[in-house]
Amino acid sequence: MTSLCITGLSDSAIEVVDQALQAAGVAPAQTAQRDSELSFASWHDRVYKSIEQGQGESSGDAGSLTELPAMGRLWEQLASDLFLSNIQTPLWSWSNAKSLGLLDYWLAFDAGIHFVLVATSPEQMLAENLAKLAVDNTDHKKSLAAMPVESLLAQWHKAHHAMLRFSLRHPERCMLVLAEDLEQHELVSAAKAKWPKALNALRAPKMSTPSVVAELSLSPADQVLRHYATQLCEAYPQANSLHEEIASVATVAATQNTDKFAKDGVLHGVLATVALAHKVPLLLSQVTEVSTSRDSLLKDEAKLKNQLELEVSAKKQLQAQLTEQAKANAVLLEEKAVLLQEVQTRGQEAQANKSALEAEVTAKTQVMVALREEKALQKSVDEEKALLLTQLHQVQEELEKYYLQCKTLIRKSKLLSIHAPTLKTKQKQQRLLHL
Fold it and tell me: What DSSP string runs through 386-433?
C-alpha cells in the first residue's frame, strides 16, 4: 500500500495537484470505517484545535504550520483507523495544508507514505491575500494599510524553508514541485519517474497546454494584483532568493521563459483595465437608466405592496371566517362524538338486554322442556297408578272370593266336624250291611 501526502501553504495549489494525480489514477482517501465523520481533514482540525487549547505539547510554536507537536496515543489511534480504512487501496492520497506542520510525524508513522510538497511564489500568496481583502472589505485604503505584508512573507519564508529542508533530508520519499510551473503531464511523469515501483499504476495523461498559458488566461484584475504583489515582494529579497533556491531543486519546472509571459500577462491586464475605463461613461448612462427603471419599479412595487396588503387583509378575514367555521365544526364534531358515544352506550345496553333475554328464553325453554318431560313422566306414573289400582281391585276381588271360599270351607269344615261322628257311624253300618 502506497499513500501520498500532498501539502503546502496554498490550498488552491494543493487542490490542483491533488486533482491532477487523481485524474491519473490515485484514489482519494476514505473516511474511517468505525467513524464516518473522521477524515484526514477532520483529524488535522482536531489535532490543531487540541494544540491551541493546550491539550498537547509541542516544541516551540504549536499553532505554526511548520512546527511538529508531540502527538499522543489517541491521535495515533485515530490516524491508524484512517489508514486501516484505506489498507485495501493500492495507491491513495490525502491533501491538507495542515499536514505541513506534521511532516516528521507522518514520515515516522508509516514507511509507505510519500510526500508531494507544493511550493508557491511569494507573489502568488500576496496576490491571493489582496484578492481576499478586496472581497471582504469595503474600505480598501484601510484594509491595504492594515495588510501584514511582512508577517505574511515571514510565514511564507518559514513554511517554504521547512519544505526545502525536508525535501533535501528525505529525497527518496519527497518530491518538491512549483505550483506556478506545473503542468499535468509533466507532474505525473515526474512522479512516476521519482517512484517507479510505487506509482507504476498511474496513467500518464495526454500532453496538455503548459500552465504558463494558464497564467495568461487569468482575469485582468488577478493579473494586476499579481503585478502589485511582485512590487511588494521586491522589498524582501530573502523571499525571492528562497524561491529561486526552491525552483533550482524542484522536481518539475517549466522550460519556458516565465518572466516574459508574466510581464506580457500584466500588460494584457493593464490594457484590459484601460479598455474598461473607456467604458465608464457608457456604464454611467446605463446606471442612470437603471436608476430610472428602479424608481418605476419602486412605484410598481408600492402598488403591488398595497394590493398585497389588501389581499393580506382579505386573507385575514377569510382566515377568521375559516377559524370560526373550524370552531363550529369542532363543536359539531364534539356533539357528534357525544351522540355516537350515547348510541354506542345504548347499543351496548341493548346488546346486554338481548343477551339477558336470550339467556332467560333459554332458561324458560329448558324449564318448559323439563315440565314437558315431567308431565309425560306424570302421565306415565298416572297410567301405571291406574293399572296398579285395577290390579289391586282384581286382587281385592279375588281375595274376597278366596275369603268367601275359605269362609265356606270353614263352615263346611265345622259342619263336617259336627257331623263327623254320625257319618262314621253310618259308614260303619253300611260296611256292616254289605258284609
Answer: HHHHHHHHHHHHHHHHHHHHHHHHHHHHHHHHHHHHHHHHHHHHHHHH
